[in-house]
Amino acid sequence: MPKIYFDERIAAAYDANSADMFEPAVLGPAVDFLADLAGSCSALELGIGTGRVAIPLSQRGVRVHGIELSPPMAEQLRAKPDAGDVGVTIGDFATAQAEGTFGLAYLVYNTITNLTTQDEQVECFRNVAAHLDPGGCFVIEVFVPILQRLPPGEDFRVFHRSPTRVSFDEYDVVTQILYSHHYRFHDDTYELFSAPYRYVWPSELDLMARLAGMRLRERWGDWTRTPFSSESTSHISVWQKPA
Ligand SMILES: C[S@@+](CC[C@H](N)C(=O)[O-])C[C@H]1O[C@@H](n2cnc3c(N)ncnc32)[C@H](O)[C@@H]1O
């Protein structure tokens, strides 16, 4: 079983620390996109967390079930009065089985990179394909690796700095792993959250989908369907299982 980085301390502060990701301008287009794709089908969220996406999606009439590694994250979700009938299976989304099949599976907010080996990412695609109905879709939202911005010899990049927070990524281009470090000033002290992520290229994800019997259906630069381009910093990719 992978290590649980989203422990009780992180889970308790997750919504407050990710407040920008709950902004209607950020979350609204994601929920619209997923609701359109789900139609009248059920949806499976991998790494459902505290229900940031699952809850508003279920409020749009989509039945949502989640797979989540961290019991404290799932407890935060269950404690929300508007969690409704959003269900959670505790387990690793590369291998865990949820009951039933789904017309849509989705993995947002860079969470594919929480699987830190290529084998685990490949397994995740296979697991998703096994959960999808024929014709069902798998959506991933993930950043495009920014190696172009690393000058020769450099291995880290600061991506957020403010008086109360400093966040930077430390790259190991040999193993395709980046370590993200977040220092937050809280209660007169700095709290540290560090975790490893396996960054992955769009083309590598397409290959994983093909290994699992799925094909790329669409790729966008964001949830509002801006065309994906060389300027895109992240992508929304949709692979489809044959009907
Ligand atoms: C960045 S949070 C995203 C949560 C939620 N999807 C959102 O958009 O707010 C990543 C979540 O994925 C969970 N997670 C990470 N690796 C996992 C794995 N292998 N299996 C299941 N859940 C995992 C973490 O515990 C955490 O709740």
Protein architecture, described:
By secondary structure, this protein is α/β, with parallel strands linked by helices. It has 2 domains: 8-144 and 200-240, Vaccinia Virus protein VP39 (Rossmann fold); 147-194. It is 26% helix and 33% strand. It has 6 helices and 11 strands. It has helices at 8-17, 24-38, 54-59, 71-78, 118-131, 202-211, and strands at residues 43-46, 64-68, 87-90, 102-107, 132-143, 156-162, 165-172, 177-186, 189-198, 215-220, 234-240. The protein has a 7-stranded mixed beta sheet. Strand 6 (156-162) and strand 7 (165-172) form a beta hairpin. Helix 5 packs across helix 6 (202-211). The longest helix has 15 residues, at 24-38. The chain is globular. The mean pLDDT is 96. The site of S-adenosylmethionine has 20 residues, from strand 2.
